[in-house]
Amino acid sequence: MPIFTTYDGTELSYRIAGEGEPLVCLPGGAMRAAEYLGDLGGLAATRQLVLLDLRGTGDSAVPADESSYRVDRQVEDVEALRSHLGLERMDLLAHSAGGGLALLYAAAHPGRLRRLVLVTPNAAAAGLPATAEDRLAAARLRAGTDPYDAAIAAYARILAGEDEDDALWDLALPLFYGRWDEIARAHAAASDRQQNEKAAAAYAGPGAFDPAATRAALRAVTAEVLVLAGGYDGNPSPERAARIAGLFRYGIPDAQPSAGHFPWLDDPDWFSARVERFLAEAA
């Protein structure tokens, strides 16, 4: 896999999938190797996906200073990748917790974005995190069927503070996918081996966010921004995704029907067509 050296000397890796105009992709997790993004529902058929392994994940090196796992200290990793790729402006896609990194990057380097896609993003960096109420309301949309009743009961306990119980998380997993099929189960099973838990614990640590300053800086972003929620996902809900889109001058909210937190798995054709249409509008 290609390697580049970022601002503090750490060597970071990325994977290339597909051909066409580059689309830099930031994974979530937090701090999960980019492998789980796959080809983003076939988006690699029309775009060259540049899938970054964040520091300490995948094939990227562990930094000498592990305090640099904090998300605001990874902003310049994204800028170093843009420079390494020789892009004056870039299309950027971020998933879930990677949304926080993308928001901070947009705030710090607004002129370097051509288009931004936020897929089921965590927007705590801008003071708009998903709430427990949002998450539980979305979960209850599927009440009355198996395995969702057990999943909802487990998720309610997690959201009430019992989040250290791995058995509860195992029961709740179906809620993160539009369909709890073989593809979803395999995707979920791979999660633990792809995540750097030490890095994840530091990612949103004290001092990482200044929401008021970030919101103010995002008003300078002139790129169009697509904020995509899943119809079954409360992280964020479609309503909160609209509020996230409202942080930008040209924010566009949308919701993928019957999708969970990983919408490219639930309806790959819908997802890839929607993202490609958005990106092509600026071509």
Structural account:
The chain is built from 12 helices and 8 strands. With 283 residues, the protein is α/β, with parallel strands linked by helices. It has 2 domains: 3-127 and 182-280, Rossmann fold, CATH 3.40.50.1820; 132-176, no CATH class. The protein has an 8-stranded mixed beta sheet with strand order 1-2-4-3-5-6-7-8, sandwiched between helices. Helix 1 (75-85) packs across helix 2 (98-108), helix 2 (98-108) packs across helix 9 (211-218) and helix 4 (148-159) packs across helix 5 (166-172). The radius of gyration is 18 Å and the shape is globular. The mean pLDDT is 96.
Distinctive features:
2 domains; 8 strands; alpha/beta; 36% helix; 283 residues; 17% strand
In order across it, which strands form the biggest sheet? 1-2-4-3-5-6-7-8
State the helical fraction. 25-40%
Tell me the major beta sheet. 8 strands, mixed
Number of strands: 8
What is the level 1 CATH name of the largest domain? Alpha Beta
Percent strand? 15-25%
Short description:
With 283 residues, the protein is an alpha/beta fold. Helix content is 36%, strand content 17%.
Write the layout of secondary structure elements.
Layout: E1 3-5, E2 11-17, E3 21-26, E4 47-52, H1 75-85, E5 90-95, H2 98-108, E6 113-119, H3 132-139, H4 148-159, H5 166-172, H6 182-189, H7 191-194, H8 197-203, H9 211-218, E7 224-230, H10 238-245, E8 251-256, H11 263-266, H12 268-280
Parallel strand pairs: 3-4, 3-5, 5-6, 6-7, 7-8
Antiparallel strand pairs: 1-2, 2-4
Helix pairs in contact: 1-2, 2-9, 4-5
